[in-house]
Amino acid sequence: MITTLALFMLVAAIQEGDPLPEMLIQARDALEQGQYAEAVTLYEDAIELAMYGEDDGPVSGPLLARIRLGLAEAFRASRQNDDALRATEDIFDSDPGPETLDRALEIRYEIGLSYLNGTTRRLLGLEVSAERKGLQVLGDLIQRYPFQPFSDDAVFHSANWYLKNNLPEDAERFFERLLREYPNSPWTAPAQILAGDAVLAQIKGVEYDMGPLTVAERHYRRYLRLFPNQGESQRARMELVKIAKMRAQRHLLVAQFYLGIAKPESARVYLEKVLLDVPASEEAAEARRVIATLVPQPVQEDR
C-alpha cells in the first residue's frame, strides 16, 4: 500500500490550495479502513482531477503513477483483480519511479499466482477459471522483468502448472530455465527433480526414442548429488530404478529383433546388458531364459 511517507511527499509536491491532497488523504484512509469501494471511487476521482482538473496542466508522471498505484491497491484489496491489472498497466505508461514500479509488478505477480492457483474471474456475470490468464500474466513478467525478487517464483510455479496439466515439454523448458538463470533460488532442489519428471513424462514407451532417458537420469543423479538431504531423495532413487528397468525392457526388444533376423550373438550382447544393469529384476530373469535357448557358436580351432 501507499505509505504515509510516500503520501506526504506526494501531497507536498502539489501546490497549496489544490483539492487533490485532501482527496488522496481520504482515499488512503478509506483503503486502510477496509472501505474499498469508497477508496476506488476516490482514487478514480483523484486521477481524473490530476489529469484534467489542474490549472497548471496534468501532474507529473511519477505522481500520477503513485495515484494509480493507490487505485490498483484498492482494486486488489476488493478482489477486482482484472481491474487491478488494468490499473497497473496504466502505471507503466505514467513514468513511475522505481518504488512504484516494483510494487506494481508485485501486484501483477500476486494476481497471476492467485489465478494460477485457482482464483476465478468474473466474465459476463459468470465465475470462470483464470488459470490460463494467470499463466499469461506470469509469463509476461518473466519475459519483460526477469530479475525481480519474485521472478524465480513465477518461473517455478509456471513450470509446475505445465507439468500438472500434462504439458511436460513446456514444463521441462521452464524448469531448465530456472536451473540455468536462477541457480541460487530456493526452488532449485524441487526444480531439479521435477525437471526429471518432466522429461520422463515425454517418453511414450520403450518402443520409441529412449534418448530422453539419459536426460532424465542426469536430473535425478544431479538431485542426489547436490541435495542429498532433501526429502525427495528416496523418490529420485526409485525413478532411477524405473529408468534402469525401462532400459532393460528396451534391450530385450532389441535382442528379440536380432533373434528374428538370425543373429543370436548380437542378441546375446543386449541380453547380457540386462543381466549387468538389473540383475535381480524380472527383465533379468527373462534374459536368462532366452540366453539358455541360444545355441552356442562353435569355436573355430587354430590351424
How would you characterize the overall build of this protein?
With 303 residues, the protein is mainly alpha-helical. Strands 1-2 form a two-stranded antiparallel ribbon. Among the domains are: 1-149, Tetratricopeptide repeat domain (Serine Threonine Protein Phosphatase 5, Tetratricopeptide repeat, Alpha Horseshoe), CATH 1.25.40.10; 247-291, no CATH class. Helix content is 70%, strand content 2%. The radius of gyration is 31 Å and the shape is rod-shaped.
What integer value in Å does the Rg equal?
31 Å
| Strand residues, percent | under 5%
Which oligomeric state applies? single chain
Distance between the termini: 95 Å
Number of contiguous helices: 14
- What would CATH call the architecture of the domain at 1-149? Alpha Horseshoe
User: Which structural class should the secondary elements be placed in?
Assistant: mainly alpha
Query: And the CATH topology of the domain at 1-149?
Result: Serine Threonine Protein Phosphatase 5, Tetratricopeptide repeat
- Shape verdict: rod-shaped
What's the pLDDT, averaged over the residues?
88
Helix content: 55-70%
Strand count: 2
State the low-pLDDT regions, or none: none
Largest beta sheet: strand ordering: 1-2
CATH class descriptor of the domain at 1-149: Mainly Alpha
Mind telling me the CATH superfamily name of the domain at 1-149? Tetratricopeptide repeat domain
* Main β-sheet description: 2 strands, antiparallel
Give the SSE string.
HHHHHHEEHHHHHHHH
